[in-house]
Specification:
The complex is a heterodimer. Chain A is mostly helical. Chain A is built from 4 helices and no strands. In chain A, helix 2 runs antiparallel to helix 3. The longest helix of chain A is centred in the C-terminal third of the chain and has 34 residues. Chain A is flat and about 70 Å long. Chain B has a single domain, classed as Cytochrome c oxidase, subunit III, four-helix bundle (Four Helix Bundle (Hemerythrin (Met), subunit A), Up-down Bundle). Chain B starts with a helix and ends with a helix. Classes of the chains: A mainly alpha, B mainly alpha. Chains A and B meet through helix 1, helix 2, helix 3 and helix 4 of A and helix 2, helix 5 and helix 8 of B.
């Protein structure tokens, strides 16, 4: 019993290890700031901006899922069980955006 | 050599033959992951619908439409729609308020991770502190969103507004018409940010329940009769997964709705 108490006591005085958390926070903050700069302060065309937004969104999503949700440190099988279905969702996204463009073209011809 | 390879092969096959934990995660965490995956499908379907509808509408083109003015003819530029900030009425501040909301949500995600980290150290005081900050962040985000919706719905009487076919000015927004653009623009705004906001709301409620349990010391001694594999403070980790997911969805909503 004394040993158990001693163990809990030791736990309470363990130093917080938050370096990785704050590093992730700064990355997220910097990328979000970059998004605002691209949106409001650059002369790029809409197409280039969309590509830049997509890249920056994926970077942010990666850091949230990998670091905050800890997926990076899970077993390989679990990582794939989550990532693989989402790959098909990205496919659907691209397919239906292209489809939206086709509907637009069709409406022009009417 | 050949024996080593065949043993390794046998070992890797054995992973899926039962009596083992292939994912090396507790069932609670695993189910949270799969719930979040299914929730990701729901949000994806909303955002994909947004993509499809947006690209089937006319985009604003200065060469064709002249100087920018809201119109039901083409999709509005988001930074022209979301340009208001509380207490600064009439000041044109494109995307500033959404930026603040994004910061609040990222910040509350950080405090949630800090709560989970404190849970690993079994430090109840620290978990309580960071959970409270997370709850506060959640409420702040919800109030910000309430302000944004109110601003969006009431709108203002301005010559920039879109007009009806008979030439009268549309003021404000509802599901049928809005001053910013085609009806579907406001519909998707309400559905997508509303669905996300509801997730934030449920997240705050769950956080409050978990905070209460932490304060009562329930997670210091998990009930192994109810959950044989329970680790102390694992519930904080599970609610943390949900909370980060809400933040993750906001990243995508933010890009789709406010930037593109």
């Amino acid at each position: 019993m004394a040993q158990v108490q001693h163990a809990t006591h030791a736990h309470e005085h363990q130093k917080p290890n938050t370096k990785a958390i704050w590093r992730t926070f700064w990355i997220l903050l910097v990328v979000t700031t970059l998004e605002f700069i691209v949106a409001l302060g650059t002369p790029f065309s809409h197409g280039i901006k969309v590509v830049l937004y997509a890249i920056m969104t994926i970077i942010k999503a990666f850091y949230i899922v990998a670091e905050f949700m800890h997926l990076r440190y899970e077993v390989r099988f679990l990582i794939w069980a989550i990532i693989l279905p989402m790959v098909f969702v990205v496919w659907l996204l691209v397919a239906l955006i292209v489809e939206g463009g086709s509907i637009f073209q069709m409406n022009l011809m009417k | 050599m050949a024996t080593t390879t065949s043993i390794a092969k046998y070992e890797s096959q054995k992973i899926w033959q039962g009596g083992n934990e292939p994912f090396k995660a507790s069932w609670g965490k695993l189910m949270m992951w799969f719930f979040l995956l299914s929730d990701a499908f729901t949000f994806s379907s909303l955002l994909i619908t947004y993509g499809l509808i947006r690209y089937s509408h006319v985009a604003y083109d200065p060469a064709v439409h002249g100087e920018f003015k809201f119109s039901t003819e083409y999709w509005p530029i988001p930074e022209k729609v979301f340009a208001g900030v509380p207490f600064f009425h009439g000041v044109n501040a494109p995307l500033v308020f959404v930026g603040i909301m994004t910061f609040i949500l990222i910040m509350s995600s950080v405090t949630m991770v800090l709560a989970v980290e404190a849970g690993h150290r079994r430090d109840r005081k620290d978990v309580e502190k960071w959970m409270l900050w997370t709850i506060l962040g959640g409420f702040t985000f919800l109030f910000s969103q309430a302000w944004e919706w109110t601003h969006f719905i009431i709108g203002e009487n301005s010559p920039m507004n879109a007009t009806r076919i008979d030439g009268t000015r549309i003021i404000g927004a509802n599901l049928v018409e809005n001053q910013y653009g085609p009806p579907l623009f406001a519909d998707l705004f309400f559905f997508i940010t509303g669905f996300h906001g509801f997730h934030v709301f449920s997240g705050v409620l769950i956080n409050i329940i978990v905070f209460y349990n932490v304060a009562m010391g329930i997670y210091d001694r998990p009930d192994r009769k109810i959950d044989p594999g329970a680790e102390p403070y694992e519930m904080v980790e599970k609610v943390g997964l949900y909370w980060h997911f809400v933040d993750l969805v906001w990243v995508f909503v933010f890009t789709a709705f406010y930037l593109i």
